[in-house]
Amino acid sequence: MASIVDKEIMTTTFENATEFVRKVAGQLTPENLLFLYARFKQAKEGKCNIPKPYFFDFQGKQKWEAWTSLGNMSKEDAMNDYVNYLSELFPNWETELDDNNEVKDGNAGLGISVSRMVSEDDVIPDCDKTVFDWCKEGNVKNVERCLTEKKNYDINKLDEEGMTLLHWASDRGLADMVSLLLSHKADQNKKDSDGQTPLHFAVECEHFNVVKVLLDNQANPMIKDSDGISPLDIDTTSSIKKLLDTYRKEHHKQNI
Protein backbone atom coordinates (compact mmCIF):
# COMPACT_ATOMS: atom_id res chain seq x y z
CA MET A 1 0.00 0.00 0.00
CA ALA A 2 1.32 3.44 -0.95
CA SER A 3 2.26 5.67 1.97
CA ILE A 4 0.55 8.97 2.66
CA VAL A 5 3.75 10.75 1.61
CA ASP A 6 3.83 8.84 -1.69
CA LYS A 7 0.20 9.76 -2.34
CA GLU A 8 0.90 13.41 -1.59
CA ILE A 9 3.84 13.40 -4.00
CA MET A 10 1.75 11.76 -6.71
CA THR A 11 -1.12 14.21 -6.19
CA THR A 12 1.26 17.19 -6.41
CA THR A 13 2.91 15.77 -9.54
CA PHE A 14 -0.50 15.14 -11.09
CA GLU A 15 -1.70 18.68 -10.34
CA ASN A 16 1.50 20.11 -11.85
CA ALA A 17 0.97 17.90 -14.91
CA THR A 18 -2.57 19.18 -15.40
CA GLU A 19 -1.30 22.77 -15.22
CA PHE A 20 1.31 22.00 -17.85
CA VAL A 21 -1.29 20.42 -20.14
CA ARG A 22 -3.56 23.45 -19.76
CA LYS A 23 -0.76 25.57 -21.21
CA VAL A 24 0.19 23.36 -24.15
CA ALA A 25 -3.07 21.69 -25.14
CA GLY A 26 -2.92 23.51 -28.48
CA GLN A 27 0.01 21.26 -29.39
CA LEU A 28 -1.91 18.05 -28.67
CA THR A 29 -3.99 15.91 -30.99
CA PRO A 30 -7.65 15.05 -30.32
CA GLU A 31 -6.46 11.53 -29.41
CA ASN A 32 -4.02 12.96 -26.84
CA LEU A 33 -6.71 15.19 -25.37
CA LEU A 34 -9.26 12.40 -25.03
CA PHE A 35 -6.74 10.13 -23.29
CA LEU A 36 -5.82 12.85 -20.81
CA TYR A 37 -9.42 14.02 -20.35
CA ALA A 38 -10.56 10.51 -19.38
CA ARG A 39 -7.76 10.07 -16.82
CA PHE A 40 -8.32 13.55 -15.44
CA LYS A 41 -12.03 12.84 -14.84
CA GLN A 42 -11.26 9.41 -13.37
CA ALA A 43 -8.65 10.89 -11.02
CA LYS A 44 -11.00 13.64 -9.89
CA GLU A 45 -14.36 11.87 -9.78
CA GLY A 46 -13.73 8.13 -10.08
CA LYS A 47 -15.85 5.88 -12.30
CA CYS A 48 -17.91 7.67 -14.98
CA ASN A 49 -21.02 8.95 -13.26
CA ILE A 50 -22.90 10.77 -16.01
CA PRO A 51 -25.43 9.41 -18.52
CA LYS A 52 -24.40 8.75 -22.09
CA PRO A 53 -24.90 11.89 -24.24
CA TYR A 54 -27.47 11.96 -27.00
CA PHE A 55 -26.41 10.49 -30.32
CA PHE A 56 -26.13 13.88 -32.01
CA ASP A 57 -23.71 15.15 -29.35
CA PHE A 58 -20.72 13.63 -31.11
CA GLN A 59 -17.97 15.29 -29.09
CA GLY A 60 -19.73 14.74 -25.78
CA LYS A 61 -20.13 11.09 -26.76
CA GLN A 62 -16.38 10.83 -27.46
CA LYS A 63 -15.55 12.19 -24.03
CA TRP A 64 -18.08 9.94 -22.31
CA GLU A 65 -16.78 6.82 -24.08
CA ALA A 66 -13.16 7.68 -23.22
CA TRP A 67 -14.03 8.13 -19.54
CA THR A 68 -16.40 5.18 -19.16
CA SER A 69 -13.87 2.86 -20.85
CA LEU A 70 -11.69 3.17 -17.70
CA GLY A 71 -14.27 1.29 -15.65
CA ASN A 72 -13.22 0.96 -12.01
CA MET A 73 -9.66 2.18 -12.49
CA SER A 74 -8.48 3.69 -9.20
CA LYS A 75 -7.88 7.41 -8.91
CA GLU A 76 -4.21 6.74 -8.15
CA ASP A 77 -3.79 4.63 -11.30
CA ALA A 78 -5.53 7.33 -13.34
CA MET A 79 -3.10 9.94 -12.02
CA ASN A 80 -0.16 7.67 -12.81
CA ASP A 81 -1.49 7.05 -16.32
CA TYR A 82 -1.92 10.79 -16.86
CA VAL A 83 1.59 11.68 -15.68
CA ASN A 84 3.28 8.81 -17.54
CA TYR A 85 1.46 9.62 -20.79
CA LEU A 86 2.40 13.29 -20.53
CA SER A 87 6.02 12.29 -19.87
CA GLU A 88 6.00 10.29 -23.11
CA LEU A 89 4.75 13.34 -25.03
CA PHE A 90 6.93 15.89 -23.20
CA PRO A 91 9.85 14.11 -21.48
CA ASN A 92 11.09 17.33 -19.86
CA TRP A 93 7.73 18.81 -18.93
CA GLU A 94 8.59 19.23 -15.23
CA THR A 95 11.62 21.39 -16.01
CA GLU A 96 9.52 23.59 -18.30
CA LEU A 97 7.32 24.86 -15.47
CA ASP A 98 8.46 27.93 -13.57
CA ASP A 99 7.82 28.63 -9.88
CA ASN A 100 4.29 29.81 -10.66
CA ASN A 101 3.42 26.72 -12.71
CA GLU A 102 3.61 28.77 -15.90
CA VAL A 103 5.18 27.20 -18.97
CA LYS A 104 8.47 28.84 -19.84
CA ASP A 105 9.30 30.30 -23.26
CA GLY A 106 5.92 31.94 -23.73
CA ASN A 107 3.81 28.93 -24.68
CA ALA A 108 0.16 29.84 -25.14
CA GLY A 109 -2.18 29.24 -22.22
CA LEU A 110 -4.63 26.76 -23.70
CA GLY A 111 -6.93 24.53 -21.66
CA ILE A 112 -6.98 20.76 -21.56
CA SER A 113 -10.75 20.79 -21.31
CA VAL A 114 -11.67 21.97 -24.77
CA SER A 115 -15.28 21.32 -25.66
CA ARG A 116 -14.63 21.30 -29.39
CA MET A 117 -12.08 18.71 -30.47
CA VAL A 118 -10.25 20.09 -33.50
CA SER A 119 -9.75 17.67 -36.36
CA GLU A 120 -6.22 16.93 -37.51
CA ASP A 121 -6.47 18.77 -40.80
CA ASP A 122 -3.57 19.48 -43.12
CA VAL A 123 -1.47 22.41 -42.03
CA ILE A 124 -2.91 25.63 -43.48
CA PRO A 125 -0.36 27.98 -45.08
CA ASP A 126 -0.27 31.38 -43.38
CA CYS A 127 -1.40 33.09 -46.58
CA ASP A 128 -4.62 31.02 -46.57
CA LYS A 129 -5.53 31.45 -42.91
CA THR A 130 -8.69 33.28 -41.92
CA VAL A 131 -9.24 35.30 -38.76
CA PHE A 132 -10.84 32.18 -37.28
CA ASP A 133 -7.67 30.17 -37.93
CA TRP A 134 -5.52 32.81 -36.26
CA CYS A 135 -7.94 32.97 -33.35
CA LYS A 136 -7.88 29.21 -32.74
CA GLU A 137 -4.07 29.32 -32.78
CA GLY A 138 -4.05 32.09 -30.20
CA ASN A 139 -2.26 34.56 -32.47
CA VAL A 140 -3.46 37.86 -30.96
CA LYS A 141 -1.28 40.00 -33.25
CA ASN A 142 -2.70 38.59 -36.48
CA VAL A 143 -6.29 38.61 -35.23
CA GLU A 144 -5.91 42.28 -34.32
CA ARG A 145 -4.42 42.98 -37.75
CA CYS A 146 -7.33 41.23 -39.50
CA LEU A 147 -9.95 43.07 -37.47
CA THR A 148 -8.22 46.42 -37.99
CA GLU A 149 -7.85 45.95 -41.75
CA LYS A 150 -11.46 44.81 -42.24
CA LYS A 151 -13.32 47.87 -41.02
CA ASN A 152 -16.82 46.42 -41.54
CA TYR A 153 -16.03 42.86 -40.43
CA ASP A 154 -18.88 41.23 -38.49
CA ILE A 155 -17.03 40.07 -35.40
CA ASN A 156 -20.14 38.27 -34.13
CA LYS A 157 -20.78 36.09 -37.16
CA LEU A 158 -20.96 32.31 -36.71
CA ASP A 159 -18.54 30.04 -38.58
CA GLU A 160 -19.37 26.68 -40.15
CA GLU A 161 -19.37 25.09 -36.71
CA GLY A 162 -21.85 27.63 -35.40
CA MET A 163 -19.38 29.54 -33.21
CA THR A 164 -18.07 33.10 -33.08
CA LEU A 165 -14.48 34.15 -32.58
CA LEU A 166 -15.26 34.81 -28.93
CA HIS A 167 -16.64 31.29 -28.51
CA TRP A 168 -13.41 29.81 -29.89
CA ALA A 169 -11.19 32.03 -27.73
CA SER A 170 -13.24 31.16 -24.65
CA ASP A 171 -13.14 27.46 -25.49
CA ARG A 172 -9.35 27.55 -25.84
CA GLY A 173 -8.79 29.54 -22.65
CA LEU A 174 -7.21 32.50 -24.43
CA ALA A 175 -7.77 35.36 -21.99
CA ASP A 176 -5.72 37.89 -24.00
CA MET A 177 -7.63 36.98 -27.16
CA VAL A 178 -10.94 37.31 -25.32
CA SER A 179 -9.95 40.79 -24.12
CA LEU A 180 -8.96 41.80 -27.65
CA LEU A 181 -12.23 40.58 -29.16
CA LEU A 182 -14.27 42.34 -26.49
CA SER A 183 -12.39 45.57 -27.21
CA HIS A 184 -13.54 45.18 -30.84
CA LYS A 185 -17.18 44.94 -29.69
CA ALA A 186 -17.57 41.17 -29.67
CA ASP A 187 -20.91 40.27 -28.08
CA GLN A 188 -20.13 38.65 -24.73
CA ASN A 189 -23.61 37.07 -24.63
CA LYS A 190 -23.87 35.90 -28.24
CA LYS A 191 -25.29 32.40 -28.55
CA ASP A 192 -23.79 29.71 -30.76
CA SER A 193 -25.83 27.24 -32.80
CA ASP A 194 -26.57 25.28 -29.59
CA GLY A 195 -27.66 28.35 -27.67
CA GLN A 196 -24.45 28.52 -25.64
CA THR A 197 -22.65 31.75 -24.85
CA PRO A 198 -18.86 32.16 -24.62
CA LEU A 199 -19.27 31.95 -20.85
CA HIS A 200 -20.78 28.45 -21.18
CA PHE A 201 -17.55 27.36 -22.89
CA ALA A 202 -15.21 29.05 -20.43
CA VAL A 203 -17.03 27.61 -17.40
CA GLU A 204 -17.32 24.12 -18.83
CA CYS A 205 -13.65 24.11 -19.80
CA GLU A 206 -12.64 25.52 -16.40
CA HIS A 207 -10.76 28.55 -17.75
CA PHE A 208 -10.80 30.77 -14.66
CA ASN A 209 -9.09 33.79 -16.24
CA VAL A 210 -11.46 33.79 -19.21
CA VAL A 211 -14.50 33.47 -16.94
CA LYS A 212 -13.28 36.48 -14.97
CA VAL A 213 -12.68 38.59 -18.09
CA LEU A 214 -16.14 37.74 -19.45
CA LEU A 215 -17.89 38.47 -16.15
CA ASP A 216 -15.97 41.75 -15.83
CA ASN A 217 -17.41 42.64 -19.24
CA GLN A 218 -21.03 41.93 -18.30
CA ALA A 219 -21.31 38.36 -19.54
CA ASN A 220 -24.57 36.97 -18.13
CA PRO A 221 -24.17 33.57 -16.38
CA MET A 222 -27.94 33.13 -16.19
CA ILE A 223 -28.51 32.76 -19.95
CA LYS A 224 -29.77 29.26 -20.74
CA ASP A 225 -28.74 27.23 -23.77
CA SER A 226 -31.00 25.10 -25.98
CA ASP A 227 -31.11 22.41 -23.25
CA GLY A 228 -32.10 24.91 -20.55
CA ILE A 229 -28.64 24.95 -18.93
CA SER A 230 -26.95 28.16 -17.84
CA PRO A 231 -23.28 28.64 -16.90
CA LEU A 232 -24.45 28.66 -13.28
CA ASP A 233 -25.72 25.09 -13.72
CA ILE A 234 -22.43 23.67 -15.01
CA ASP A 235 -20.28 21.56 -12.69
CA THR A 236 -16.92 23.33 -12.55
CA THR A 237 -14.09 24.28 -10.18
CA SER A 238 -14.78 25.82 -6.76
CA SER A 239 -12.94 29.03 -7.73
CA ILE A 240 -15.12 29.51 -10.81
CA LYS A 241 -18.26 28.66 -8.82
CA LYS A 242 -17.28 31.37 -6.36
CA LEU A 243 -16.90 33.91 -9.18
CA LEU A 244 -20.30 33.00 -10.60
CA ASP A 245 -21.94 33.04 -7.20
CA THR A 246 -20.53 36.52 -6.51
CA TYR A 247 -22.05 37.75 -9.76
CA ARG A 248 -25.39 36.12 -8.91
CA LYS A 249 -25.52 37.76 -5.48
CA GLU A 250 -24.61 41.18 -6.87
CA HIS A 251 -27.24 40.82 -9.58
CA HIS A 252 -29.82 39.86 -6.96
CA LYS A 253 -29.00 42.94 -4.86
CA GLN A 254 -29.39 45.21 -7.87
CA ASN A 255 -32.84 43.80 -8.56
CA ILE A 256 -34.21 44.06 -5.01
Structure, explained:
The protein has eleven helices and no strands. By secondary structure, it is mainly alpha-helical. The protein has two domains: 1-105, Acyl-CoA Binding Protein, CATH 1.20.80.10; 123-256, Serine Threonine Protein Phosphatase 5, Tetratricopeptide repeat (Alpha Horseshoe). Helix 2 (30-45) runs antiparallel to helix 4 (75-89), helix 5 packs antiparallel against helix 6 and helix 7 runs parallel beside helix 9. GO terms for molecular function: fatty-acyl-CoA binding. Residues 10-95 form the ACB domain. InterPro entries: Acyl-CoA-binding_protein (IPR000582), Acyl-CoA-binding_sf (IPR035984), Ankyrin_rpt (IPR002110), Ankyrin_rpt-contain_sf (IPR036770), FERM/acyl-CoA-bd_prot_sf (IPR014352).
Name the features.
256 residues, mainly alpha, Acyl-CoA Binding Protein, 11 helices, Acyl-CoA-binding_sf
Distance between the termini: 56 Å
What is the domain total for the residues? 2
State the name of the first-level CATH class of the largest domain: Mainly Alpha
Strand content: under 5%
Low-confidence stretches: 99-112
Helix count, per DSSP?
Answer: 11
| Rounded radius of gyration (Å) | 19 Å
Shape: globular
CATH architecture level-2 label of the largest domain: Alpha Horseshoe
- Number of extended strands: 0
Annotated CATH topology of the largest domain: Serine Threonine Protein Phosphatase 5, Tetratricopeptide repeat
**Name given to the CATH homologous superfamily of the largest domain:** Ankyrin repeat-containing domain
Domain ACB: 10-95
InterPro entries: Acyl-CoA-binding_protein, Acyl-CoA-binding_sf, Ankyrin_rpt, Ankyrin_rpt-contain_sf, FERM/acyl-CoA-bd_prot_sf
Protein name: Acyl-CoA-binding domain-containing protein 6
ANK repeats: 161-193, 194-226
